[in-house]
């Protein structure tokens, strides 16, 4: 009987927390200028401005590049990548890129991109699908805005996103062009330095960046690794 009451109390508290979080999210959305800007520019969500700002500052994307966008849903980053790589054939005078977007969720089509919805990036089956699409082509830019569903437990959430980040690094190292770039979202935590050090083994430069569009109270930031050296030979 006591266990049943405890379970009911626990369920009630979870419901209250969810309702509170939902209200906070709605209030934040209403006051967020990037939400309105996204609507005006027909971007699928505000995160488009994160990539726009990072690319404008660091010149990550160029026409003709092969780009893989990981954690792509609902597709706002892909919407930015397509015109900047000319994968939609808009400019016949520029090289044509190849853009692949992957996410666990289904995504509505985007002209100029190949989208793999309902696909777990950490699965070897998904990697095989990507390699088939690449057809022996190497990747110039790997973008990852992928993140787990937050539990609210900081160290657990950090462990989860770092695990995802390592899978992105492994994929990048195995499939990137020499000179390639890898951009990965992470959250604050004690394993970031380990991830940074591993990236430095394979890339010429690695630095932390945080776009203005990232909310000030967010623990997210990005690791930008540039100048892929190629696979290390023993």
Structure characterization notes:
The structure is a single chain. By secondary structure, the protein is of the alpha/beta class. Helices cover 44% and strands 20% of the residues. The protein has seven helices and seven strands; from the N terminus they run αααβαββαβαβαββ. A seven-stranded mixed sheet has the order 3-2-1-4-5-7-6, with helices on both faces. The longest helix is centred in the first third of the chain and has 30 residues. The chain is globular and about 50 Å long. About 6% of the residues have low confidence.
Query: Mind telling me which CATH architecture of the largest domain this is?
Result: 3-Layer(aba) Sandwich
Q: CATH fold name of the largest domain, please? A: Rossmann fold
- Count the DSSP helices: 7
Strand order of the largest sheet: 3-2-1-4-5-7-6
> What is the CA-CA span between the terminal residues?
64 Å
Number of domains: 2
| Strand tally | 7
Mean pLDDT: 89
Order of helices and strands: HHHEHEEHEHEHEE
CATH class descriptor name of the largest domain: Alpha Beta
Structural class: alpha/beta
Can you tell me the CATH superfamily of the largest domain?
Answer: Vaccinia Virus protein VP39
Strand content bin: 15-25%
Radius of gyration: 19 Å
- Report the principal-axis shape: globular
Q: Give the fraction of residues assigned to helices.
A: 40-55%
């Amino acid at each position: 009987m006591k266990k049943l009451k405890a379970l009911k109390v626990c369920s009630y508290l979870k419901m209250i927390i969810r309702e509170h979080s939902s209200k906070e999210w709605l209030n934040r959305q209403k006051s967020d200028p990037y939400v309105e800007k996204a609507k005006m520019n027909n971007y699928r969500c505000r995160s488009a401005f994160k990539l726009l700002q990072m690319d404008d500052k660091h010149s990550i994307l160029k026409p003709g590049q092969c780009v893989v966008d990981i954690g792509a849903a609902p597709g706002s980053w892909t919407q930015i990548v397509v015109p900047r790589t000319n994968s939609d054939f808009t400019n016949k005078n520029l090289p044509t890129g190849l853009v692949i977007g992957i996410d666990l969720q289904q995504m509505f089509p985007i002209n100029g991109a190949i989208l793999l919805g309902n696909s777990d990036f950490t699965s070897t089956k998904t990697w095989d699908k990507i390699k088939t699409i690449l057809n022996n082509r190497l990747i110039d830019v790997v973008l990852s805005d992928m993140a787990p569903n937050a539990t609210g437990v900081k160290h657990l959430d950090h462990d989860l996103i770092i695990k995802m980040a390592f899978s992105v690094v492994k994929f990048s190292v195995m499939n990137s062009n020499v000179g390639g770039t890898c951009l990965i979202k992470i959250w604050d935590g004690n394993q970031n330095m380990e991830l940074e050090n591993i990236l430095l083994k394979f890339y010429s430069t690695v630095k932390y960046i945080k776009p203005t569009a990232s909310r000030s109270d967010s623990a997210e930031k990005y690791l930008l690794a540039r100048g892929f050296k190629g696979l290390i030979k023993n």
